[in-house]
Each structure stands twice: as structure tokens, then as C-alpha cells.
Automatic annotation (TrEMBL):
Top-level taxon: Bacteria
Start and end residues of each Acyl-CoA oxidase/dehydrogenase middle domain: 122-211
Chain coiled-coil ranges: none
Official protein name in the record: Pimeloyl-CoA dehydrogenase small subunit
Keywords: FAD, Flavoprotein, Oxidoreductase
PANTHER family: ACYL-COA DEHYDROGENASE, ACYL-COA DEHYDROGENASE FADE28
Residues covered by the Acyl-CoA dehydrogenase/oxidase C-terminal domain: 235-356
CDD domains, per database record: ACAD
Family note: Belongs to the acyl-CoA dehydrogenase family.
Cofactor: FAD
Amino acid sequence: MDFNFTEEQTMLRDSLSRYLANTYDFDTRQKTVREGKGWNPAVWTAFAEELGILCAPFSEAHGGLGGGAVENMVVMEELGRAIVLEPYLSTVVIGGGALKAVGGAIADDLIPGIIAGHVRIAFAAYEPQGRFHLNDVTTTLKGGQLNGHKAVVEHASNATHLLVTARTGGAQRDTGGIALLLIPADAAGITRRDYLTVHGTSASEVYFENVAVGDAHVLAADALPLVERIVDEATVALCAEACGVLKVLHAQTLDYAKQRKQFGKAIGDFQVIQHRLVDMFMEVEQAVSMTMMATLKLDSDERAAAVSMAKAKVGKAAKFVGQNAVQIHGGIGITQELAVGHYFKRATLIENQFGSVDFHLSRYENLTLAA
């Protein structure tokens, strides 16, 4: 099996890397965070018009590059290196992934809008009582009216559309009777409570009260298998972002260990620090390998197990690398002024997004025992 990137994938990575290095440094990012919007519209426009990365995983028929999960992996790792705030994951990977899977007129209508940067999608699937279980749904769609509450919906405040799961039948935790909807974010009856996450992105508690939903808004009627696939694809993309975050955490810690002096010598000269840095490097490399494996298995029967293996490994790596980066830096590792603390925050959030280590270990066990 060839694990080398194609020429097009390499060009995609290099162009995005150069843009972020030149225009998205840490101080610029922090300025966006302080503005409180959770993203920078100008950067999103540049992603669409200057770089064209929003078209990477879409078919040429829709104006894309004809790529897929590997292209998302390439993009997400580079976004992780710069801890980018913009909604690539929710819009391109999740929203775009749902539209590609459903196809038809709605995909033909909205995917070009995603590529152009005009359509932005927020994923409203998780509820306060549901933890990481996608089938635990109390939001209901009855008589064409949507009612319920979705929690921690990232980028809902700047979304044009909401991708929502709703129960059309069955009990709260049944695997059947769950529909997938795509509705305008400004529809009557939708209210939000917006806030910033510890990482600096925007998130919202979204409430639906008698929101009118027509047949055109229903992407899939019995949608849980589709939703699980979309979340698996998003989880692998998130793992790729984590790899970018962890590579920077290790690199910055290695550089600091060469500069920081203790007892008249650089702390990187002490064997205990060298061993710790090597352990961090090994965790990063294993996370990269597991992420690539899961990406390549997204279209196989082993998809769910491979995704859970990768997410569990990446979650452990995020904790180990992040905590050791902060420990080696000392107190300054958690200050607002130093970038490493913000990378640590992002790694900590990724550790639990789309399922914690324990959740995915349990899921992997159940899948393999069932097999």
C-alpha cells in the first residue's frame, strides 16, 4: 500500500501551510479570539477564494477537486498546526459529508455554496443528557414542527444552516426513528445562547420551539446509520487536526528545552528531559499512523472499529503530550501569552470531542466482540 501523498495533495498541504505561516500567526489568532466572534470571515473567504481548500473533498461535478477523506486529513492537520478557529470541520467535513452522502438536488444546490464560502453548516446532534450517544435524542419532529434542545453546537452563531437530528418515533434511546434535517439557521422558532469555548471557537445552546420543517428539509428519514458514518468521518478528521496540534506541542517543547538553562546548562541536556521528549515524539508518531490507518479504512467494513482505535490512541496522546509540554515549560506553559498553553487547551478539547478515550475503547470492544 502506498502511503505517499499525491502531487495534488502535497500542493494542497504546502499552499495552506504557507498561507497560515504568513497570515495566521499566533498573535493574529489571539486578536480574533479577543473579538469574541469565534472566527474570522476574511480568513474563511480566503480559504474559499484564494486557496480553494473548501473544494478539496468534493467531486469535480460540484466544482471540487475530486478528493475525499485523505484531502480532509491533509487540510485538518495543517489547521491543527495553527489552531485555526474557522468552521472547516463542521461545514466541509460534516455538512459537506452529509450532502455528498444524500446527493440529489439539495447537494447540487448547497455544495457549490460551501465551496464558494457562502454556505456554513453547524452540526446540532448532541443533547445535554446524551453524552456521546447519537441515538439518545429527545428533540422531536412531529406534525412538521421541530421542538427540543441541542448542546454545544460549534459555529451555530455564524452558520447559515443547521444539520439537526430529531426523533420522529420510538423511545428516547431507540436506534430507529431518527431523522436528519438541514434547516436554515434563521428559521422562526430557533433561539440560541452563544458563548466561546476555552479554545476560542464559538458554540451555542440551540433551542427549537415549533420550528416549521417541510419535506425538503429532511435529508434522511431513518438516519442513524448515516449520522454515525458522518461522525466517524468527522472523528478521523479531528484526529488529523490533533496530529497537527501535537506536532507543534512537541516542536515547541523541544525548542524550549534547548534554550532554557538550569544549573548552568540547557534542560534538554538532562537525560530525564531527553527521555520525556522522546516519549512525546513516539506518541505523536503513533497518533499520526493510527489516524492515517483509520482514514484509509473509512470505506471498509472495519470503519467503526478503526475510527475508535484511532480516537482512543489520539486521545491518550493528546493528554500525554499536552501535559508533558506544560510540565517541561513550567508555569509559563499555562499563561495566555505563550502559544503552548493554547495548543494544550485545544488538545484537551479534542481528547473528549466526538467521544472520550473510555467511550471509544468501550465502542471498540463492543464492535470486536460482536464480530
